[in-house]
Amino acid sequence: MIPEHEGKGGGLATRRDVLKVAGALAVGGAMPAITVRPAAATPAAMQAAIAKLIGDAKLNVGRVKLEIPPLVENGNTVPCAVAVDSPMTPTDHVKAIHVFNEKNPQPNVISARLGPRAGRASISTRIRLSDTQTVVAIAEMSDGSFWSDSVSVFITLGACLEDLI
Amino acid sequence: MSRALINVPAKAKRGEVIAIKTLISHKMETGFRYTNMGVPIPREIITAFVATYNGEEIFRADLHPAIAANPFITFHTVATESGAIEFKWTGDNGYSATEQAKITVE
Predict the structure, then answer these.
(1) Could you tell me which chain A residue has the CA closest to the CA of B33?
(2) Stated pTM of the model
(3) How many domains does the structure of chain B reveal?
(4) According to DSSP H, which parts of chain A are helical?
């Protein structure tokens, strides 16, 4: 005879009970991975990072063009291009281009330093975005002024949500 | 050793602005991920990228974990003279990779 068919009265664990316990263990085992995930950077963290960069200077809007697709399926690789309107002469050029985000674990994305040797203030790269959010690009000019552009990006599948290894 | 792909025009006119594209294979582990046992995976990223044109620095970038795996970076420079453009990536755990591209300026 096969005892499983006897049910609860038989004193042996039923197939159903075993599955219940296994399910509970699986949920319990997965919990730490979810709960200890670091808190995401907040818009405030991004503002703090920007304030640290520009200090007391005024952040102007314009002259910078940040290009990111408005709708992104996969946050693991998001094309990101920054172009700054500047003659790139020794007296008037872009010193640096910085990119910040709101909701990744850290607000910084990239800081590129260039000079009059660049000829054209235009860079591009691929970035990770964890969630639907606003991305900000800031250009630091040789005269000490700061210019910016921001783009809000809708992410269908954020970075960091891929299968755990 | 990582594999790097560099795209620099082989020939350029003097004073021309040229586009340079670079790609290097690197997993860019963010340090914010966990194994299924809940153990944090340590950060391992490329933190800096520098390009020099005949020894003169023309571009530098500080990278953060928000840069996608296999960092792809493009930038521009003015073709001033024939010679070599050298690229160097440095990162966590003593990671370092260099690559070189030749350019002829007429």
Answers:
(1) A160
(2) 0.79
(3) 1
(4) 15-35, 43-54
